[in-house]
Amino acid sequence: MKTKLLTNTSSAMRYLFILYLLVSTLFVNSQDLLTEDKAARYAGMALKCIHQEYPNKPGEVLGSDRDVKPVREYRPAFYGCFDWHSAVHGHWMLVKLLKKFPDSPDAAQIKEALSKNLRPENIAVEVQFFLDSNNRTFERPYGWAWLLKLAEELHTWDHPLAREWESVLQPLTDLIVSNYQDFLPKLVYPVRVGEHSNTAFGMAFALDYARTTQNKALEATIVTRARDFYLSDENCPIGWEPSGFDFFSPCFTEAELMARVLPEAEFSSWIHQFLPTRPDGRLAFLDEPARVGDRSDGKLVHLDGLNFSRAWAYAMIASKLEPGSREAFQQAAMQHIRHSLSAISDGNYAGEHWLATFAVYALYEMERLTE
Predict the structure, then answer these.
(1) Among candidates 371, 352, 366, which has minimal Cα distance to 52?
(2) pLDDT confidence of residue 360
(3) 186-216 pLDDT, tens per residue?
(4) Residue 259 and residue 320 in contact, taking contact as beta carbons nearer than 8 Å
């Protein structure tokens, strides 16, 4: 009996040591993967595209012949990077990288580029576009969410330029907040797809903004609606994922939102009813990264984005789980990130104009949530 006990104890100690090494490796790797050189390369992609008007997918509704004009005339702040939302999160990435590497060789160029776009007269035109009766739902909720993420990033940066840009952006930020407050109470059913209209993703980023800026009204609306939409969900069919054009995971993006919304004990109960379990009783998840058939195809390359967004969802979920499940989710997150990092390359505009922002967000979430 004593020998068996010693053996079991020894096995347990080896298991804990291995887990410790895994967690330590995950933390180091999540930081090492975003070196200053790589940050400069990603910043270069955003610097290139935020002032590149064409090719462009405008997405607006035209009310008359008068509305037919170059995109830069009615969206002078966010006209580049193929579409409005990519331009917005390109600006977010530049702010994020500038905060992380303030002395980088391209810091002056980043500041100049952001100051060129984030000007009061430009934001005033953007606001008028959203107030147009034909475009009140433009970029709902995906672009709305990234606009609030940009505003949040500026709010948390103690720098004179951040205060200037945040103030300039504020009229558009306030309008997006108002739009969320108006829209969410009227939404009867959540949208659960793996693309732009996913409700859970939009609510997650909006909730981050609300909590960071102490907007209690917006926070209360999102928490209430998240509970309405998702609290009774069970047995999410993770085996159906991914579908061909996903850049979000319907199941794990929802779980990521609920990890933000629910207290830890309540989330633990919810996640165990929401996700299936493996034969050993642990939570099931998708550990194999999505594969892309053609990275020059603008829709198929979405799946590289899925690997990054699934990684940041796993990191958020892991932060609320018990040991064992936590490390498994963290390992899977790093596996997904590593799989698609090499897909971020110059010269292939189908992914070049947006994938770097997804990678940067995933890496920072891994670093933040595994500290």
Answers:
(1) 352
(2) 97
(3) 999 999 999 999 999 999 999 999 999 999 9
(4) yes
**Residue the block writes with tokens 């180091």:** 28
Q: Which residue in the block uniquely carries the two structure tokens 């058939």?
A: 293
Question: In Å, how far are 105, 162, 209 from 118, measured between CA atoms?
Answer: 21, 11, 19
Tokens of 1: 């009996």
The neighbouring-strand residues paired with 277 are: 283
Q: 3-state class of 277 per DSSP? A: strand
The whole-number average pLDDT for the span 319-326 is 92
DSSP state, 368?
A: H
pLDDT band of residue 21 (cuts 50, 70, 90) is very low
pLDDT band of 15, cuts 50, 70, 90: very low
Q: What is the pLDDT of residue 31?
A: 61
Residue 97 has pLDDT above 90, yes or no: yes
DSSP H stretches of helix in 118-236: 120-131, 142-155, 160-183, 199-212, 216-230
Please give the Cα distance from 215 to 335 (Å, whole number): 36
Which of 330, 248, 343, 345 minimizes the C-alpha distance to 30?
Answer: 330
| Closest alpha carbon to 94 in 106, 76, 80, 77 | 106
Both structure tokens of 179: 């739009």
Residue type, 241: E
Segment 224-244, tens digit of pLDDT: 999 999 999 999 999 999 999
Helical packing angle, 216-230 and 250-261, nearest 10°: 130
Beta bridge partners of 283: 277
List CB contacts of 314: < 8 A, sequence separation 6 or more.
252, 285, 329, 330, 332, 333, 336
Q: Is the distance from CB of 332 to CB of 314 less than 8 angstroms? A: yes
| Residue 283: strand, helix, or coil | strand
Tokens 């993770």, residue? 238
